[in-house]
Amino acid sequence: MTDLDRRRRFFAEELEAVCKLQSPALVDAFAAVPREQFLRPGPWTVMADLDFMGPSRTRATVDADPARVYHNIAVAIDPARQLFNGQPGTLAVWIDALGLEAGYRVLHVGCGLGYYAAVMAHAVGPSGRVVAFEVDETLAAEARRNLASLTWVDARHGDAAIVDGSFDAILVNAGVTHPLDAWLDALADGGRMILPLTSAMPAMGTTLGKGLVVTLTKHSATECAARLLNVVAVYSAVGLRDEAMNERLGKALMGGPVKWGSVKRLRRDQHDETAACWLHGKGFCLSG
Fold this sequence. Notes:
This protein has about 290 residues and is an alpha/beta fold.
């Protein structure tokens, strides 16, 4: 085992401890996947929790030693656009909530350069399947090259508005205003989806949105259990948002944690909006 292998194993076990990860396969995946191979050449522009609050949001690593990226930091994949490979401590919690197992079929919406798609691919193994979408054509092409050795991963250019097949797990890694019918239809019975619901803030000159991450577990064609996972600030998805729903979601978020905490299910049956509906949209309703 090399020094970098040991560094990667420590990184994985630190995530396991700090994030309370339940999946040994996911921990092993973080220990196995070389993060630096899913980044552009270093030195790297990075951002940690404290950088969100400081006068300068980013800083540079002192060199291109791969060991520099094995911390709970976001690493820029396109510094000019302030586009980052997300913090492992955030994504690890989301992926762990999917309950991945060997042989699972996974849909990843917003894969960037492919790092977290590779992590999930290792967790489900060669008997599984990962379909990873990236809307940016250049990033999608790089992700396809980075993931080429994982033959059970299919990296595609697109926004994932149309998907084929059935999936046991869906990770949406960008802020949306609502779940797409295509995703809900593609989610297998008993499958789980990670859904960041965010209100965009274009007036602030940023593509970031703030909101909630919801875990959906599909019980039937018309209903999913819903559980609030955490709050989030994340990049807004390109081409998948609805301006009317963005306004409705912003108002719902202003209702505060008491209202958020009342959400227990996602309904797809036709019904009139009532006080129990936290976010009522076309074809779906998050409610108590």
